[in-house]
Write a structure and sequence with these properties.
The protein is of the alpha+beta class. The protein has helices at about 10-20, 20-25, 30-40, 150-160, 170-185, 195-205, and strands at about 1-5, 50, 75-80, 85, 90, 95-100, 100-105, 115-120, 125-130, 135-140. It is about 25% helix and about 20% strand. The strands form four sheets. Strands 7-6-9-10 form a four-stranded antiparallel β-sheet, with no helix packed on it. A two-stranded antiparallel ribbon has the order 1-2. A two-stranded antiparallel sheet has the order 3-8.
């Protein structure tokens, strides 16, 4: 079956819906072009087409007249987030993460990172963190690929460089946000989402990482 990706879909959530392993869907040869184009199975663009094959029966041999436990792999999903106050990580701070109304409590690590196991089909959350009870609304599964302008815009907004709603269309607000981002990380201030800028966005947004010291004046590449 060819499935057209909708907002909020990910390979993980679709695997849960159709009773398959996410790796089984993503590694299907029919999805080779999409794998190469997107890279991450859970960062897809609405309109992408994913091949999802029917489930195949699996047989297990067990001793009769005994009770056997079968555990489904891949459920729930691990959610990871790194929280900052400006550029300072919210280290060792208590938090409450509500996921579709279900509470998850804990303390961030030394780098401001929290990890929680959540349902693969979770849609919305709200994080309350720190002594200032700072609140962050979260929408799961809506981060678009970095190869698309809207993916660039969403990352800039998450990091505090863009203050308008991501639209997927080029505009002056996006260009200014890109210049600010490029200046902060010592890149050439073109105001364009070139390969160097996308790579830095991926490094600073998509993986847990502390902010480096600001570049010295006159040292931009």
């Amino acid at each position: 079956m060819k499935y057209t990706i909708k907002p909020g879909d990910s390979t993980l959530s679709l695997a849960d819906r159709f009773g398959l392993f996410a790796e089984t869907i993503w590694s299907d040869p029919a999805n080779a072009e999409l794998r190469q184009r997107r890279g991450d199975m859970n960062i897809l663009l609405p309109g992408d087409v994913l091949e999802i094959r029917d489930k195949q029966p699996r047989f297990e041999t067990r001793v009769t007249n005994q009770r056997h436990l079968f555990r489904r792999r891949g459920v729930p999903a691990k959610y990871r987030l790194q929280a900052f106050n400006g550029e300072k990580p919210r280290a060792f701070q208590r938090y409450l993460l509500l996921v579709d109304g279900a509470p998850h409590k804990g303390v961030t690590d030394k780098d401001g990172i929290l990890e929680e196991m959540i349902p693969p089909v979770a849609k919305e959350g709200r994080l309350t963190i720190g002594p200032d009870l700072f609140e962050i609304p979260i929408r799961f599964g809506l981060l678009d690929p970095l190869t698309e302008l809207i993916g660039v815009q969403k990352r800039l907004r998450n990091m505090g460089f863009l203050f308008t709603e991501p639209s997927g269309q080029p505009d002056e607000a996006t260009s200014e946000a890109l210049r600010l981002f490029q200046k902060r990380f010592g890149l050439q201030q073109t105001g364009e989402a070139n390969d160097e800028t996308r790579h830095m966005l991926e490094q600073m947004h998509d993986t847990p990482k502390l902010f480096p010291p600001p570049p010295l004046p006159g040292t931009e590449s």
